[in-house]
């Protein structure tokens, strides 16, 4: 395969992945800010508690995940297609072609939400495991060292570790469900339900199977944490500063 073709496939895959991610982040962050402004304490621009932030971020993350599930399904299949034998490749032309063919070939609109439960649980857990550890560590570092530039980076590093630990097993389960063919003869392994996916991963691959791809996944979690926490907290901090609050840093 020519180098130009390899780069073209890589760029297409990256574009598909981050188009879905940006759509998810837009919905998640828009809802987070809108609901935050409705439920915040009476004091102007004051923070919610860490528990309230975790519940809020988990809820809006789950909703955004459900809405974007069909595109996640299309993305995973399009990326995985190149690694399949030629006779069983799906050869989707675009994300919208994938969504249309999934509906036509696999039983209607319900088929678009294959693996949606795992996707929702994963991103709800992701938001909780990002927001809680990030806010906690950022506050503790600020109390000890003051307003230093490395506070944000260390808090992101810490939060990304916990997000990876809690959500990578769910991501691996979700990916296997999304990639599966309705025709059992085309799959190397066939899963009856989510519990069966966990059982087979552990039986054939042990604990390492749940954390396959941990290093690149951590990089993705750090980027996701940076986008989510930086954008949301940047808006909150600027508003607290404008309101003259001394505790804007935490």
CATH level-4 homologous superfamily:
Mitochondrial carrier domain
Which oligomerization state do the chains in this entry correspond to? Answer: single chain
The major pleated sheet works out as:
none
Compute the separation of the termini in Å.
Answer: 52 Å
Give the CA-based shape.
Answer: elongated
What is the number of helical segments per DSSP (H or I, 4+ residues)?
8
Kindly identify the CATH topology: Mitochondrial carrier fold
Count of individual domains: 1
Compressed to H and E, one letter per element, the order equals HHHHHHHH
What does this structure look like?
The protein has 250 residues and is an all-alpha fold. The protein has a single domain, classed as Alpha/alpha barrel (Mitochondrial carrier fold). Helix content is 74%, strand content 0%. The N and C termini lie far apart (52 Å). 31% of the residues are buried. The N terminus is likely disordered.
Précis, in short:
It is a multi-pass membrane protein. The protein has 250 residues and is an all-alpha fold.
């Amino acid at each position: 395969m020519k180098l130009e073709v390899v780069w073209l496939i890589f760029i297409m895959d990256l574009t598909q992945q981050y188009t879905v991610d940006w759509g998810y982040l837009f919905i998640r962050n828009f809802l987070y800010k809108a609901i935050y402004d409705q439920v915040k304490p009476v004091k102007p621009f004051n923070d919610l508690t860490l528990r309230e932030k975790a519940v809020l971020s988990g809820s809006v993350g789950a909703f955004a995940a459900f809405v974007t599930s069909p595109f996640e399904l299309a993305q995973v299949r399009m990326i995985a297609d190149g690694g399949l034998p030629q006779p069983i490749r799906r050869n989707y032309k675009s994300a919208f072609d994938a969504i249309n063919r999934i509906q036509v070939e696999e039983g209607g609109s319900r088929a678009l939400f294959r693996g949606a439960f795992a996707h929702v649980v994963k991103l709800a857990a992701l938001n909780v495991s990002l927001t809680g550890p990030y806010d906690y560590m950022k506050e503790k570092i600020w109390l000890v060292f003051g307003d230093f530039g490395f506070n944000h980076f260390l808090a992101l590093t810490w939060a990304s570790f916990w997000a990876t630990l809690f959500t990578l097993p769910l991501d691996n389960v979700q990916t296997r469900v999304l990639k599966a063919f309705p025709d059992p003869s085309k799959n190397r392994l066939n899963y009856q339900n989510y519990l069966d996916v966990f059982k087979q991963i552990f039986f054939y691959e042990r604990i390492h199977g749940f954390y396959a791809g941990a290093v690149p996944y951590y990089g993705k979690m750090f980027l996701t944490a940076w986008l989510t926490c930086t954008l949301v907290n940047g808006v909150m901090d600027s508003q607290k500063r404008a309101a003259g609050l001394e505790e804007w840093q935490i």
